[in-house]
Amino acid sequence: MKRFLDLADLERDEVLALLELARRLESRPEPHALAGKILGLLFLNPSLRTLASFQAGMARLGGSSFVITPGQGTWQLESRLGAVMSGAAAEHVREGIPVLASYCDALGVRAFADGKDLAADLAETAFSAMASLVDKPLINLESAISHPCQALADWKTMDDIGVPRSGRFVLSWAYHPRALPLAVPATAAHMAALRGMEVIVLRPEGFALPPQIMEKAARAAALSGGSVRETGDRDEALSGAHIIYAKEWGATSCYGDAAGDARLRGNLEDWCVRNDWFAHTAADCRLMHCLPVRRNVAVADEVLDSPRSIVQREAYNRLTAQMAVLYRMLKSSI
Amino acid sequence: MKRFLDLADLERDEVLALLELARRLESRPEPHALAGKILGLLFLNPSLRTLASFQAGMARLGGSSFVITPGQGTWQLESRLGAVMSGAAAEHVREGIPVLASYCDALGVRAFADGKDLAADLAETAFSAMASLVDKPLINLESAISHPCQALADWKTMDDIGVPRSGRFVLSWAYHPRALPLAVPATAAHMAALRGMEVIVLRPEGFALPPQIMEKAARAAALSGGSVRETGDRDEALSGAHIIYAKEWGATSCYGDAAGDARLRGNLEDWCVRNDWFAHTAADCRLMHCLPVRRNVAVADEVLDSPRSIVQREAYNRLTAQMAVLYRMLKSSI
Amino acid sequence: MKRFLDLADLERDEVLALLELARRLESRPEPHALAGKILGLLFLNPSLRTLASFQAGMARLGGSSFVITPGQGTWQLESRLGAVMSGAAAEHVREGIPVLASYCDALGVRAFADGKDLAADLAETAFSAMASLVDKPLINLESAISHPCQALADWKTMDDIGVPRSGRFVLSWAYHPRALPLAVPATAAHMAALRGMEVIVLRPEGFALPPQIMEKAARAAALSGGSVRETGDRDEALSGAHIIYAKEWGATSCYGDAAGDARLRGNLEDWCVRNDWFAHTAADCRLMHCLPVRRNVAVADEVLDSPRSIVQREAYNRLTAQMAVLYRMLKSSI
């Protein structure tokens, strides 16, 4: 595996094999598998789980890593093609990224959506331009529209606790003070559909996921016997749910318009997942969230601190899932 | 040893055994002792020695580490229970800390005093709340009122250079432009008392150490044949001293009141340790300081650049002392 | 080799031996050569290549490293002797640097020119003061006037692609919005002269390299059969050139005077290397630059994206060259 940029780039069987590998490495560690291998990590945006779990994962497999964070000990990087670089950015990604790739055996890059032009973000214009500069194994640490490491961790988490393959997966919009990117909701919908689940995207007016995202999830559902639909009716969506996957994202009806987005979300503060959301779900319905989560804003303490919450296991599985990705990419076949 | 949060949590013999282990690892390195082990380091406050020496210590023992610094590549963490997180902090320690712990074999956390509520700081309210979230070995990298790694390094330093076990240890307040936390003075007084020394806390009016800190040191003294008292009389305190341990801290008579603290310290700039402080000490009296130290503000160049200063050895012993802690925590017994 | 502070500190044969070692380690890796060794890296200024390549180089040789970045998780360091430290800096380099050195087997330090006093910068006053505090192997990661790791990488790059030993090396000033330090131009001129090349420093009025720098390069040329001269005539300089080494630097005629510098560079925006600069060079003339480079400000896209550009190979050779330095410094002879 040369690239891990989006779950949709893999055959479903390849995803299942990665999950199997993650479980194998969890039960039978291979502490020298990646001895001598180096992972470079480039963070154009903040991180906690990704930053810690990739370093830990390389170390658990005997390898090592380095971290570059523009703006934190490294200057800002320019990414616009043809830019006359007379501003703050001192280096272009066209130099910076291949240089970093030349120092390591695999490179991970995090670059969030620009949040201004929906078509450009959906097309992964910025990330694809960066990816085209790298001739080493490359890992998407979250791009404009995709977060495949999170997807793999979430899938494994549901397997771990026995969520039915065809269970009802409700991806619910949750309140946040400002617009957040579409990468996680897009990825979670696709992942759950590919797993074979009944995916319901629950969101208020103005926050519908773009057709391209819904269609991609629908294609995955078609492959695996799942389904995907969207609704604004919370009671209907949550009825019988096995998973409430809470996620904050920006208004898609006025993408890139901060004032419009603020108006739309103004009276949506009740989109904070509380115990009463579970009144008519399956009895063992669980709360998932990719983290970080704003407590009592997106999800209430009463849910996060209850046994319903499996957010810790999701976060832990970032490590196990990524170790499988690293192993598949970097383990010498001999 | 599952936790290293405060020297007082250990029996005196356990402390002596850690010091012995530190000396053994210094003379007979074990470069593979912690192969495959991972230390997570969470810094909620700045660091130089702790940051460098823990990474170096793990590497010297064959292990590895990762560093997370909220505000520097990672978002700010909220720590208040029940907070409605609509402000700057994007993640709560209730998620962040157990997640980090799940990626490593031991976690170190630095979280300075809040500096507003003396009772809360003395009770280690914030640190204890964080510690309760961790089910892995946990190391205190400096909390509101305790810095056990510094204590162990300081004790070893005095052993290294032959400071008499029952010698006179003067913990002297030193000038600083603003209030600093009580962790180091509280820890130094307790450590020297537990070592069996005659501990004198020398401080101006308004800067007395709180009774809880003095009583804790007194209990340690009672165990070991030492003593603890407090004075504002510099000549009397320094007479015959074997150690002047300089440290800056905030006014305790108006804790959390910046204006009151500033008034109190306004005319205390002569609390900068100079050569004449050693006029009536023991001939071989040494200057200790945990660093960082503001030169010519807390301690004068003439002292820091003289053979009296053992601050470098104290800092070096952070490495040796912490290697013993890591070894004791993480070495498989087989 | 105890110190790697300036290429001029080494005999020419020692430089050639380092280059040979770099090639050997490139073709026959030694992944355990520095097992158990620790490199400390102190960055008083931003970095990308140096930060990543030193960590990668240590890992490639089986060792490890830690990074300290004052202002990014570590407080600011004071470097003025005798300072009364009542300002922002909480620690003096006189404590910080020897402490860091005590945790590692070799220390690297980056400290750019102050840019105010040319004589002080030429004398490496600040860096020398720091270097005098270190009793471990020490590497210059770029000081006021020297960047020996870049020099070694550049030399190897020219060897790699077969640039004639006596070829014409044009070190050309390039536009930048503000004054940059002299370390790279000074080092590149000296390196190319020591390699035996015909070195021409091409620069506008007011930007002549100081006599000390030119004389040092001339002494190196005398040793190796090369030559060094300076001109403002671009056509004459570029005619027959084998290398255009573009570099931005500050006005030397009014060093430290930002307004004067800005006036001088005001109408020099045509000092951006474009394709037409190669009209009368040797047919296979290459573009070198140490990076970071501001695209379309110092060098145009049309050059950087053409086969003439060897900036990527220069950057990659930071890794290979530094691995030779680390190996020479830290490999036990047994």
What's the short version?
The structure is a homotrimer of 334-residue chains. Chain A has 334 residues and is α/β, with parallel strands linked by helices. Chain A contains 12 helices and 12 strands.
Kindly describe this structure:
Three copies of one chain form a homotrimer. Chain A folds into two domains: 3-147 and 318-330, Aspartate/ornithine carbamoyltransferase (Rossmann fold, 3-Layer(aba) Sandwich), CATH 3.40.50.1370; 162-309, Aspartate/ornithine carbamoyltransferase (Rossmann fold), CATH 3.40.50. Chain A is of the alpha/beta class. Chain A is built from twelve helices and twelve strands. Chain A starts with a strand and ends with a helix. The first copy, chain A, has helices at residues 12-27, 49-60, 93-102, 118-122, 125-131, 148-160, 183-195, 211-224, 234-238, 258-265, 301-304, 311-330, and strands spanning 3-4, 38-43, 64-68, 77-78, 91-92, 106-110, 138-140, 168-173, 198-202, 227-231, 243-247, 286-288. The longest helix of chain A has 20 residues, at 311-330. Helix content of chain A is 38%, strand content 15%. Chain A has a five-stranded parallel β-sheet, with helices on both faces. A five-stranded parallel β-sheet of chain A has the order 10-9-8-11-12. Chain A binds chain C through residues 35-36, 38, 40, 64, 66, 68, 72-75, 78, 82-86, 90-92, 94-96, 98-100, 102-104, and chain C through 31, 43, 46-49, 51-53, 55-56, 59-60, 62, 64, 67, 69, 72, 177, 291-297, 301, 304-305, 311-312, 315-316, 319.
N-to-C series of helices and strands of chain A: EHEHEEEHEHHEHEHEHEHEHEHH
Nearest-angstrom radius of gyration of chain A? 20 Å
CATH class placement of the largest domain in chain A: Alpha Beta
CATH topology grouping of the largest domain in chain A: Rossmann fold
Biggest β-sheet: strands ordered side by side in the sheet of chain A: 1-7-6-2-3
Terminal residue distance of chain A: 15 Å
CATH homologous superfamily assignment of the largest domain in chain A: Aspartate/ornithine carbamoyltransferase
Overall structural domain count of chain A: 2
Q: Quaternary state, please? A: homotrimer
Low-confidence stretches of chain A: none
Shape of chain A: globular
- Largest chain interface and its two residue counts? A-B, 34 and 29 residues
The computed structural class of chain A is alpha/beta
Strand tally of chain A: 12
Largest sheet of chain A: 5 strands, parallel
Helix content of chain A: 25-40%
Strand content of chain A: 5-15%
